[in-house]
Amino acid sequence: GQQVMQIPQYQHVQEGEDFTTYCNSSTTLSNIQWYKQRPGGHPVFLIQLVKSGEVKKQKRLTFQFGEAKKNSSLHITATQTTDVGTYFCAGHSGGSNYKLTFGKGTLLTVNP
Amino acid sequence: DAMVIQNPRYQVTQFGKPVTLSCSQTLNHNVMYWYQQKSSQAPKLLFHYYDKDFNNEADTPDNFQSRRPNTSFCFLDIRSPGLGDTAMYLCATSRGSAANTEAFFGQGTRLTVV
Question: Would you call A102 and B45 a contact, using CB atoms and an 8 Å cutoff?
C-alpha cells in the first residue's frame, strides 16, 4: 500500500534559523498537502501542490513538489516561536479513491 | 464557526464497553475520514467514505466500525475497546473533487480506555 515517509522526525532550531522537512512517497501522487498541528490541536491545512515541479510560497514558507510527484519539501525561512508545531505532509492517491495518507510528521521546536 | 464538529471532546470508557464517537459537518462535503492519532504519532487512516461508498483500510481492526447515515453525520463505533485504543480520534472532511482535496479536521475526541 501507499506509504509516505517524512524526515527528520524532530528539529530544534534557534529563532531566526531556517528549517526544512522532507517527504517521500512510495507511489506517484495525485497531489500532496501540508498540514500543521500545534500541540494539543488538530491538523490545519496549509497548502496543496498538484503539478510536477510546483513551487508555492506563503510568506516565510516555501513548498515544493518533485518532478516525479513522489517527493515534497517544506522550508521555513527565519523561524519564529509561532512556527512551533508538527508539520505533516499528506499524500493523495487520486482517481475515485480519496484516500489521504499522512507522513509521520516533523516536530519543530524553536528556542527564542 | 465550527464546520466539522466532533462529540464528545473527551471520552473515558471501560475496557470492553462499546463506545460511539460522532462527527458532523456543515460543509456538505462528499468525503469523510476517520483517523486515529496516538501520542506523538501521525494520524492513521481507519476508513473513509465518498458519499455512501465505504473504504476500509486493510489494517483497521474489525473492532472498529463506522456508519454514515447521511451527508452530514458520521459515526465511529468501537465495539470492544482495548487499552491500546486510547488515542485521539480525528474526523475530517473534503470536497471530493480532483481540484480540491483539502481536508478540514474537527477538534478530535480524546478517548481514554481504562
Answer: yes
- All three cell numbers of A105, joined, read 510528521
- Within 8 A of B107 by CB-CB distance, chain A residues are 41-42
Q: Is A7 on the interface with B (CB under 8 A)?
A: no
Contact criterion met (CB < 8 Å) for B41 and A45: no
Provide the 10 A C-beta neighbour count for residue B95: 17
Q: Does residue B79 have a pLDDT over 90?
A: yes
CB < 8 Å & 24+ apart, contacts of B49-53 = B49/B74, B50/A96, B50/A97, B50/A98, B50/B96, B51/B96
- Tell me the pLDDT tens digit for each residue of A25-50: 999 999 999 999 999 999 999 999 99
Tens of pLDDT, residue by residue over B32-75, are 999 999 998 999 999 999 999 999 999 999 999 999 999 999 99
Which of A7-11, A97-101, B50-54, B70-74 is least confident?
A: A97-101
Chain A, residues 27-46, CB within 8 A of chain B, namely 30-31, 33, 35, 41-45
CA–CA–CA angle B38, B90, B25 (5° rounding): 175
Q: A10: which strand partners?
A: A107
